[in-house]
Amino acid sequence: MRSHYCGELREEHIGEDVTLMGWVHRRRDHGGVIFLDVRDREGISQVVFDPDREESFKLADSVRSEFVIELRGTVRARPDGTLNKDMSTGGIEVLGKELIILNKAETPPFQLDDHQQVGEDVRLRHRYIDLRRPEIQNKLRFRSKVTSALRTYLDGHGFLDIETPILTRATPEGARDYLVPSRTHEGSFFALPQSPQLFKQLLMVSGFDRYYQIAKCFRDEDLRADRQPEFTQVDIEASFMNEEEIMGMAEEMIRGVFQNLMNVDLGEFPRMPYAEAMRRFGSDKPDLRISMELVDVADLMATVDFKVFAGPAKDPKGRVAALKVPGGAVLTRKQIDDYTKFVSIYGARGLAWIKVNALEDGVEGLQSPIVKFLGEDVSLQIMQRLGAKNGDIVFFGADSAKIVSEAIGALRIKVAEDLGLIEREWAPLWVVDFPMFEETGKGGLTALHHPFTAPSCSVDELKSSPETALSRAYDMVLNGTELGGGSIRIHDQAMQKVVFKILGIEDEEAQEKFGFLLNALKYGAPPHGGLAFGLDRLVMLMTGSDSIREVIAFPKTQSASCMLTDAPGEVSAAQLHELNIRLRKTP
Ligand code: ASP
């Protein structure tokens, strides 16, 4: 057994005989003396082998990077002038006496220090080596601390950790299901849970009162953004609590984790209604580290002789919004063209702009391809409304409200990143008062959260105007990322049926898909609600990582495959036969 981890040795161990086990991080031959940097999960120690111990010296000379070794030696102070202040073990070294090679290693596909030189696919294929990098090790250790802190909070507040099934029926959260064929029930399939939503609600009906689970969820989505087909939620549900109480508790939990693990005080989280978030920031997860806001100018544009603006300005579903970027007049034509391309991803057909060069010269001081269409009055009125100053640039979006909010909302963040306009390190908030439904685009309605979210109105009000009904849902947002979300649930069967109906799920289908829930609601379902946090995203934000893949031990690629195991893979004809599956020949 080891006596110490390599990374633990300090000056206080000088004179002690130690046994270390680990990997050869680097081997250096310094004129007849061999230096081995030996690494384990706690760090690296330098071990020196002198030629006077012939046998171990020879072995030390023979080892290569990533060999696994055991060694015995004595800790001593590093000679003057060789101290390494950048290493926690930099004040000492170990004089190696005995060396055993526990296992050899072939030359690894990349050196840990040079991981950036190889593509992510190579690293993912050899993930077990990539995971040896101290940076990733630290991230996964931090993740473990986060889950432990969350558990401590929840355990301490009476939440019970209860597991729910992985092989189950569809739980709609807006994505496609991963399906698993049943061998024993020909032609039938399990769905992997998109979340434990329905089971946690049933646990409330069963009287467990407070539940949590660090739960794997599965969503078959087109992986545009930084998503994973399987990811981890901290899933929480409680009975007899209203939204204020649930939000209060969740906020206290997250604040505590930041305080304890990072010494960061997130303060009290402000609340913002969904409509306000969309209006001011063009997003339901506004990044409040940036103070720029979208400003509506449709009233000023409705009369201009310029259809691109006047059209959406007069359309009740349209929007014309301006974004003033302080100091943005420095942007070059090329940069503006790049932003035009950027907003086109969100469906915007162009990006109008006005550079404010010299306001004191009136419209003459505005540089823009559109001022001539807007006319002097409107141009100056807009400048006034925005409080524009010399040196600013103003961008405009004019289209359907959805496109303008998304495009200019995203531009706001992109420009802020590019021009260094992010003003704070952390900006949490709650977004509340979401609409119950949104339009599907095919004439129907779909649930903005999920179909089990309670409306904040009565059954009758919901029936008469579902489009304007608000829900009792809440999202926790941090730095423009949705950390978690949830709602008070429907606990009344009649209300649940109405919501299904509005969503176009007729009684028969509702009974077939969600009969177990509808039945449970008949037998004494308490008022309840909850939420779920995306653990991967939380850890990503806390560790300042660029992608959730950096905080997941074995992540999948953007195309939802595992480079390491080559999953998904083909299966044998015999297995398919057993499952009664015949594959359609691909042309
Ligand atoms: N089940 C929800 C989700 O996965 C969270 C919740 O409503 O508790 O987004």
From TrEMBL:
E.C. number, please?
A: 6.1.1.23
Protein residues bound to ATP: 219-221, 228, 482, 534-537
Q: Which Gene3D superfamilies match?
A: Bira Bifunctional Protein, Domain 2 (3.30.930.10), GAD-like domain (3.30.1360.30), Nucleic acid-binding proteins (2.40.50.140)
> Which residues are noted in the entry as L-aspartate-binding?
173, 219, 449, 489
Q: Name one Pfam family in it.
A: tRNA_anti-codon
Keyword Cytoplasm found: yes
The protein's location, in the record's own words, is: Cytoplasm
The positions annotated as site (Important for tRNA non-discrimination) read 30, 81
What InterPro entries does this protein's entry cite? Aa-tRNA-synt_II, aa-tRNA-synth_II, aa-tRNA-synth_II/BPL/LPL, Asp-tRNA-ligase_1, Asp-tRNA-ligase_1_N, Asp/Asn-tRNA-synth_IIb, AspRS_core, GAD-like_sf
Keywords (A to Z) from UniProt: Aminoacyl-tRNA synthetase, ATP-binding, Cytoplasm, Ligase, Nucleotide-binding, Protein biosynthesis
Question: What's an example of a GO molecular-function annotation for this chain?
Answer: ATP binding
Q: Which residues form the Aminoacyl-transfer RNA synthetases class-II family profile domain?
A: 140-555
Q: Which catalytic reaction applies to this protein?
A: tRNA(Asx) + L-aspartate + ATP = L-aspartyl-tRNA(Asx) + AMP + diphosphate
Matches recorded under NCBIfam families: aspS_bact (TIGR00459), PRK00476.1 (NF001750)
Q: Which PANTHER family match?
A: ASPARTATE--TRNA LIGASE, MITOCHONDRIAL, ASPARTYL/LYSYL-TRNA SYNTHETASE
Quaternary state and interactors = Homodimer.
Q: By what name is this protein known? A: Aspartate--tRNA(Asp/Asn) ligase
Q: Which organism is it from?
A: Marinobacterium aestuarii
Lineage of origin: Bacteria, Pseudomonadati, Pseudomonadota, Gammaproteobacteria, Oceanospirillales
